[in-house]
Amino acid sequence: MVSNSLEQDADFMRRAVFLAEKGVGQTSPNPAVGAVIVHDGRVVGEGYHMKCGEPHAERVAIANAKGHGFTQWSEATLYCTLEPCSTAGRTGACSTAILEKGMKRVVYGAQDPNPSHTGKVNELFQKAGIAVMSGILQKECDSLIRGFRKVQETGLPWVILKSAMSLDGKITRPEGEGQWLTSEASRLEVHKLRAEVDAIITGGNTVRKDAPQLTVRLPERSLESRQPRRVILTRDRHSLPIEAEIIQDSKTIIYEKEDLKDVLRDLGSQGVNTVLIEAGGELLGAFCDDKLVDEVVMFYAPLLTGGEAVGVGGVGVKSLDDVMKLKQVHYTQIGDDIKMRGTVEKERGE
Amino acid sequence: MVSNSLEQDADFMRRAVFLAEKGVGQTSPNPAVGAVIVHDGRVVGEGYHMKCGEPHAERVAIANAKGHGFTQWSEATLYCTLEPCSTAGRTGACSTAILEKGMKRVVYGAQDPNPSHTGKVNELFQKAGIAVMSGILQKECDSLIRGFRKVQETGLPWVILKSAMSLDGKITRPEGEGQWLTSEASRLEVHKLRAEVDAIITGGNTVRKDAPQLTVRLPERSLESRQPRRVILTRDRHSLPIEAEIIQDSKTIIYEKEDLKDVLRDLGSQGVNTVLIEAGGELLGAFCDDKLVDEVVMFYAPLLTGGEAVGVGGVGVKSLDDVMKLKQVHYTQIGDDIKMRGTVEKERGE
Predict the structure, then answer these.
(1) DSSP structural state of residue A238
(2) Strands A105-110 and A131-134
(3) Bridge partners of A134?
(4) CB neighbours of B242 closer than 8 A, spacing ≥ 6?
(5) Among the options A46, A58, A140, A196, which is catalytic?
(6) How confident is the model at residue B136, as a pLDDT?
(7) What is the spatial distance between Cα A49 and Cα B193, in angstroms, rounded to a whole number?
(8) Nearest to B304 among A288, A306, A336 (CB)
(9) Phi and psi dihedrals of B289, rounded to 5?
(10) Does A335 touch chain B if contact means CB atoms closer than 8 Å?
(11) CA distance B72 to B112
């Protein structure tokens, strides 16, 4: 029995989102996409896009179903977090593969953000007698491609600002003290966050003072997993400690540019869809001042330091209208620390 | 049937704590105390100390039981959050009233913090054949009298530092903008917090800039409820706006003293057991610098401001050892705001 109820569609799409998330941080410049093939109310094949150059999620799912001996394509429904591509890229259009299989129905979540592609498959499939539905779990599916979409639309990657602070908003590591004050568990969360992004930006001061590795170190992560690109913003590259591993790595990108938007645009053109800013208060503040931040993740340790060593500095706002408001704010208690994650509202004086 | 199980004792003591809480903020220089009289497993009388000069909780509970026609005192147990007083104060020793009634058993939570009284009733009651047990719900009962105890032990009131900040630790009201950024619900919490304390301290700058009322405004609060004393710290009292209601109120206390400990000691000697500091970053920071803070309550609005207008300033700590660590940290989400409340650990470099 094939039920087309919205609830069942959402359940299968949730599985596709779950699969897509495995690719987050690994697929750029492509987006993370997941796909599930369902027949008779059961999943018969599934997959996700693993990295650029590898097959798209739809083709992975088809191959997976085939591998299990599945043949009843004309009775199958394909669930895909993103509208299947209608133009042949590196790996051939997915819509072609779906048409070839003569599937019964296609359900997708997010639309292709490229305006010349958006909704193109609908007509293509309908002509071939394939039922099409879109917008299932759209919020979740849109979120999966938020970096990809932003680069397509603006040339700039999605920018996540991260800091670990005291409860009074001071950086939790007094200058010269390398020790972390947030807990082991919070640090694990930072590594998970790094694993989501294509690049991590820091400042020359942080490199000189703290010698951060800025790598993803997670027990469950496979060795072949891609590490985010490491990016250093500095006024003078010769002031950086040449012996530091991060400087010796030829893949590290160093910018002497002053304009942060230029830096982001350049990273976007190099296939970076999402960047994490892990830096001192001045650089974080500068990204805020320039209104370049899309999302904020903060870790708070249960302590106060007083003083002026602010976690987010810069010029700051001059009026309430200019304040960076967050929406979809999630607070998570991690031991005695707290993690806050929210998306920046985009109305403020822009 | 009278069960003496610890669980049942804790249940009745919980009721006594609940009653005591009604008096918090109303009883100084006395502590808030609640009492319950139990016979045959049922509450036959209860009460709490309402304000200084009025009967103590034990006497209120006895009168309440009497009012209901209760007479079987020799089979009754008295639960009291604090050790019954053994010396006649304004209203006669409660131990005398209990002895007169010839009660069967007395259970109390916290010990009298006055070292010359501590545990004195135990002997008194035991001699009279009254069973005594102490330490039931001790943590909760101790917390009820934390201000009272601190004044007894040190001459200084319990100090609660409060601020409402952005997620990057900046005061949420940019200078000259009177509007609050935390939500209506968070503001209600602030009024509840004010209702807990005997005095509210602010700075001359805050009075000049924000003209705060610093009063408790709660819908459920009765008109006779005592308002906390309002205290202003300023370098020059003549710089304060004479037309402001807070200045015109003859009960407002204004200090020109520089030494914060002196100010607190003077308030303690005037019967203030607990103070709330609601002020700008400089004054809050000064209390932190001088290690005078016992508890911290922070409200965070879901926004970032950047810049340097810190919510807690002062000189700040020079090393991690000096950091003000919080324990018993509770986070409560209030709409999109978050409230953090914690007690200061007392080990740091003292």
Answers:
(1) G
(2) parallel
(3) A108
(4) B248
(5) A58
(6) 94
(7) 53
(8) A288
(9) -55, -40
(10) no
(11) 28
Q: Which residues of B touch A285 (CB under 8 A)?
A: 306-307
Q: Cβ of B307 and A327 within 8 Å?
A: no
In chain A, the percentage of residues whose pLDDT exceeds 70 is: 93
* Rounded to 5°, angle at Cα B347 from A173 and B293: 80
Is beta strand A274-278 parallel, antiparallel or unpaired with respect to B131-134?
A: unpaired
| CB contact (8 A) between residue B169 and residue A174 | no
Sign of the alpha-carbon torsion through B215, B218, B224, B226: negative
> Given this model, what pLDDT does residue B108 score?
96
pLDDT in tens, A279-289: 989 999 999 99
Contacts of B170 in chain A (CB under 8 A): 169, 310, 316
Length of chain B (residues): 350
Going by C-alpha positions, the residue among B325, B331, B341, B335 that lies closest to residue B276 is B341
pLDDT (average), residues A169-196: 77
Q: How high is the mean pLDDT of chain A?
A: 90
Q: Which residues contact B141 (CB under 8 A, 6 or more apart)?
A: B13, B17, B81, B82, B108, B109, B110
pLDDT beyond 90 at B3? no
Distance CA A81, CA A17 (A): 6
The string of pLDDT tens digits covering residues B59-75 is 999 999 999 999 999 99
Long-range contacts of A244-247 (CB under 8 A, 24+ apart): A244/A207, A244/A211, A245/A213, A246/A207, A246/A211, A246/A212, A246/A213, A246/A214, A247/A207
Q: Tell me the pLDDT tens digit for each residue of B295-339.
A: 999 999 999 988 888 888 888 887 777 888 999 999 999 988 999
At A350 the pLDDT is 43
Query: How many residue pairs from chains A and B have C-beta atoms closer than 8 A?
Result: 160
Nearest to B308 by CA among A169, A289, A316: A316
CA distance B40 to A32: 68
With CB atoms and an 8 Å threshold, state whether B311 touches A169: yes
Distance (Å) of CA B73 to CA A139, A194, B60, B80, B127: 67, 68, 15, 16, 17
Q: Kind of pairing, strands B105-110 and B158-166?
A: unpaired
Active-site choice (B21, B46, B54, B58): B58
Structure tokens at A253: 């990108």
Of how many residues is chain A composed? Answer: 350
Distance CA B305, CA B64 (A): 55
Q: What pTM did the predictor assign?
A: 0.87
Contact A146, A156 (CB under 8 A): no
CB A276 within 8 A of CB A193: yes
Which is nearest to B168 in space by CA: B341, B283, B308, B295? B308
